TrEMBL record, chain A:
SUPFAM superfamilies hit by this protein: P-loop containing nucleoside triphosphate hydrolases
Similarity section: Belongs to the ABC transporter superfamily.
Record keyword Transport present: yes
Keyword vocabulary terms for this entry: ATP-binding, Nucleotide-binding, Transport
Domain ABC transporter: 6-245
Protein name per UniProt: ABC transporter ATP-binding protein
Superkingdom in the source lineage: Bacteria
One term of GO molecular function: ATP binding
InterPro entries: AAA+_ATPase (IPR003593), ABC_transporter-like_ATP-bd (IPR003439), MacB-like_ATP-bd (IPR017911), P-loop_NTPase (IPR027417)
Taxonomy of the source species: Bacteria, Bacillati, Bacillota, Bacilli, Lactobacillales
Automatic annotation (TrEMBL), chain B:
Protein name as annotated: Efflux ABC transporter, permease protein
InterPro entries: ABC-4_Integral_Memb_Prot, ABC3_permease_C, ABC_permease_BceB-typ
Keyword set, alphabetical order: Cell membrane, Membrane, Transmembrane, Transmembrane helix, Transport
Family to which the UniProt record says this protein belongs: Belongs to the ABC-4 integral membrane protein family.
GO annotation terms (biological process): transmembrane transport
Upper classification of the organism: Bacteria, Bacillati, Bacillota, Bacilli, Lactobacillales
Membrane topology type: Multi-pass membrane protein
Membrane spanning stretches: 16-34, 54-79, 100-126, 157-178, 199-219, 231-255, 283-304, 483-505, 532-558, 570-593
Amino acid sequence: MTNEIVKTTNLHKIYDKNGAKPYEALKGISFTVKQGEFVGIMGASGSGKTTLLNIMATLDQPTSGTVQISGEDVTHLTSNQMADFRSRHLGFIFQDFNLLETLTTSENIALPLSLQNVKTSQIQPAVDKVAKQLGIDELLSKYPNQLSGGQKQRVAAARALVSNPSIIFGDEPTGALDSKNARELLDTMTSINKKGVSILLVTHDPFSASFCQRIMFIKDGKIGDELSAQGKSRNEFYQEILNKLGTFEQ
Amino acid sequence: MKFKISLAGLKARWKDYLVLFSGMLMTTAIFYMFEAVSTNNAFTTASRVGQNAKFVFIFGSVLLSLITIVYIFYANNFLMSMRKHDYGLFMMLGAKPSVISRLIMTETLIIGVGSTVIGIILGWGLTKGISGLLVSQLDITLTHFHALYVPAIRATFILFIILFLIAGSLNAITFFRTSALQLLKSQQQSDWKPAKKSILAIEALLGVALLAGGYYAMYDIEELKIMSIPIGLVTIVLGTYFVFNSFFIMLLTILQRSSIGKKGLNSFTIAQLKFRIKDYTKILSVVSLLFALALGAITVGIGFQQMAPKLAAGNSPYALALTNPTHKMRSMINNLDHATQTTYQQKVVGKTVYYRQQQLKAQPLKYAYFKSNDVAKAAVKSIGLNELRDPQSEEYLSAQRLQAPQFQSFQLKAVSDDNFNHIQAQPKQLLVVAVTDMNSQSKQLTKIFNLESQRTSSKYIEMLPGSFSIYQQVKGIFASVQFMGIFLGIAFLAMLASCLMFKILSGTTTDKRRFEMLNKIGTKKSALRHSIMIQVFGLFGLPAILGLIDVAFGLQMFEQSNMLYGSYQIFSWSAIAFVVLYLIYYGLTVLIYSRIVVPRTKVEK
């Protein structure tokens, strides 16, 4: 049990806006992510992958079913508890970086720690450490608009990592990057993962997905299929994903 | 069809439009309020001060028009930032730029005409309400003042429609030149670049030095005389600008580097505030200066009015001097609190008024004068018999002024009781009444004064003896100044605060993303709201604080040159009133801002 970082059980989400026809975005989703796993969730637009990510990230609540992260049921937390939980246990990397333009790189990375009221004297060493790990220690005093897209995304990754989260959620993190920078970021994520950090990546890009160890395909609110990279080279896995997408989307 | 699309656009985002619309209403209403006073020549020139103050109204009108222009352009930017995406979409779907331009024009004009018409109606109501309130509170009468005033309606309508036409055309041109793709992707990117440290430091120092120089110039008005006004004006305007542009930024940077700056959301809050202050330097400077002007005008207006008893006291030690008062007058005088009365016998023969020497010796007449040209410090002394023999002396002249108007040019003579008794004339009585607190006795004194006026021929009314007539004249003159000061002060402040409110609210589109990100990384909603409260407080508070300091030093000009006394007490009261009004705007801005940017549990992607 303890090595399960994420466990979702029979998740349902029904959008029932008054007046509109009720719409069921998730129809009973159950899966687990183990400690240290690099898992991808793939699916077309409207398949429910963003809804699923929002619920796992405690940004939204399911209509029924439960989500456990590090053994804690997060589905019935209050809004404040959710916020606390996010700052302590989850890291995020978004498609559009979401850095604050008015803060320096260093201040951006430090933000999750200040939110947890970590002592000032402990913040800077933690920031320096993660910056070094991601090779952005030269950029710490720069502002986001002085950075390239790839650098910005590495800063975002550092911000996600700095609080030693149980898991990092990546929401199309390579969406706004060119192929070279995307590749670099994925390599970075792989190396982070190799150090034991669990990652859950939501994407519709087969190339990004090919860096995962396991991929779940979601369609019409249900998990349809799963692929594992075990024993395959990344190229082979990429081909397999492409083939699967070809049949799965039909 | 296009009209329909425009209306649909309005309907779709009615909440944002409601904010915009209510702001516009306030602006129009306030502008109307001002115009109701300033375009009414009969009212403004009814008092002597009003005649001299004509330029104040012209200046005020220009200033308010400028603020209105700035305001409309801010509001218009807010409107356009909401519509860019929609119009981009229309263009993407094949709508011609000319069609889009017409759509924008229609939309801007619908909002413009609507808010102008309703705003004028609101302004009429506000003018009626506030003027009524002031009249009853200040116990004054306003002649020729009308809440519904056609020239004011005309001026307001013309200015606003012209402004909306310009705004609409500018919007249309902007869209005409922008490609659909740019519009669709028009998420405002702030290009925050930190200023160079050395320049920042120089500017900060310069700002503080200029302000200090300006304050000193106002303080040292006795030495600098009239020069202190232009010196103060230039240095304070420039100083305010640099203080916002650099000094506050520097302070915030220091705060950000300290351990406080690293706690919780503080680094974000301070950075946001820094960014905003830099971005809003001009408007914050204007707000600060006008805040000071409005508050200063109110304080000085009230201050002058409160000088009335002091001015009166230096003019005569007696509130009233009545020759042969009627029975009714006597009984009313007996009802006055803390009043002393003295009666002198007199006889008038030819062009001479005779008094009993004995009586004048036993209870001398008193004479009041200002100590060394100081209008607030009156002194009183007794008039000796010797002085009464010298027609050139101040004392003699002052005793002369106590006579009934028709005798004021007559010669005064003190004679022995024997001589007095032998004078063949009807004996008369001169009753002089002194009160310790003219303000509190003002109602009763007015009644007696009116009785005296009734039995005096109209050509002599202005010459009625006693300080109460001076008191009434001063009150009369400055009551309208005070009224205008308060009325326009409120109008200015409300306008400035709504201007600031809009400028802040128009930044919500960019902030929304920041707050969503903060929510995602686990910031509590209470922390987000707290951050908003501090940010908005900084933007409202800093100009207000600077404005208050401006007034505090500005009043020194009046105090040092002995024109006003005790103005700081009035200042503290009017400052409290200002701050309360300002706080309402602050609260409103925080509320609307939070509603727009603090994400709900479900975060939109």
